[in-house]
Amino acid sequence: MTSTIRPADESGVCGGACEPIRGTATGAPRGSLRRPAAMSGNLDVSGLVDSDGGLLDRAIFTDESLYQQELRRVFAPSWLFLAHADQFHKPGDFFTTYMGEDPVIVTLDKNRRIRAFLNSCRHRGARVCRADFGATRNFTCTYHGWAYDLEGKLISIPNKEGYPDSFDAKQWGLIEVPHVESYHGLIFGTWHPEPVSLRESLGDMAWYMDAMLDHDEQGTVVVGGVHKWVLSGNWKLAAEQFATDWYHVNMSHASALMLLSPSAKPKDEIIHRTGRQYVDPNGHGAGFPVHPKNRFDARTVHEWMDYGALRERLGDARVEGPMTTGHATVFPNFSYLPINGSVRVWHPKGPDTMEVWAWTIVDKSMPEEVREAQRLYNLRTFGPSGIFEQDDGENWSEVQAISHGFITNGVPLNYQMGLGSEREDGRHPGRTSELYSDAAGRSFYARWRELMNTPAWHEESR
Ligand code: FES
Ligand SMILES: [Fe+2]
Fold first, then answer.
1. Which residues make Cβ contacts (< 8 Å) with residue 428, sequence separation at least 6?
2. How far is the CA of 128 from the centre of ligand 1 (A)?
3. What is the pLDDT of residues 345-370, one digit of tens each?
4. Which domains does the chain have, with CATH numbers?
5. pLDDT tens string 396-417
6. pTM of structure
């Protein structure tokens, strides 16, 4: 495959992609401001992702201009995970996070509606909320004192009489994320003004997510706080692995597996372990071993689970598959591990760095001691210093550390395991591949390529 990055206007693929970014992408008035087209020059990435052949060009992990294009064309139009509904109980409860690199405040308004706003003051751009989470009656910028209510309206301006009569406070409220929806307690938002619904974008992936989120009528709650840590490595390395990579488990985590079960022979498992990998056309993915007698690893959790009731609610295929052991990614950057109740976002921080934000969620119906057992199990295995999490972070950082070498960067990566193996297996919805396969990874990058080559709504010409 070729590794040439071509400007979109040379290939013709991106059509109007080289038009200036529309000033009204967020609805904010721009007066006579115009951005030169060169600031948003988009690249045709067709030559960088060969999904049919299972090859990837490493430039997609290192190139700064591709990274900027990702923020415009992958993150801005996609549904992105914001928070868990359990983080908001009273009007004014808020949590601050990011959509791509855009800071946002998620809050419950007076009508108990979850809303999300760009966390940037309309005056000179400072964050109007610098706390990670909390409760407030309004958001007051600490730079000059502009204040906004829970609906994002500008309600107070020091020295208002100093502004011209034409100044209209209604035009200067916080920029609102236009669509916020939730699925079984997971709240997502998108900047796309006319998106497909969150449920539609999840498609069959929802069936796999329910295996963790829908054990009973009460749903899930968050235990503990949000763990945050910074890793060297492109965000896609982590998102891709959680979509498609059970292959690394027995090698990368060999010492951790032997510690947990001394009689295990990790290398043998690679041949004998059976399971499936779900391959979603929208780039999501999930992999899970299949055990007729599945179990949760934390003994207290295992003993509390009512497997009979779970089989009735979720069906045998889910209880014996994706309910416990496994991994999953909702495209682009939300991932989870059912056995730990770990949900996480891989926040992009430039091509070479990601920031991991991880929550532990448990069934609301769990008694306190069971919640605590699950929290501790997650902390020991997939907390920031967990025995598995450290193995994974080390791999991503290792891959990234050498990828800027001129020769290294031009050597393609292999995603050929299980080529052509996807099929309807009659037991799990959608198409699945073998447990050990790169099929969901190929689909993840096919979706990435599609979005990277498609002008987003904000690029429509005036
Ligand atoms: S930057 Fe917020 S009030 Fe000036
Ligand atoms: Fe891992």
1. 207, 208, 276, 278, 317, 321
2. 8
3. 999 999 999 999 999 999 999 999 99
4. 80-182 (2.102.10.10), 204-452 (3.90.380.10)
5. 999 999 999 999 999 999 999 9
6. 0.93
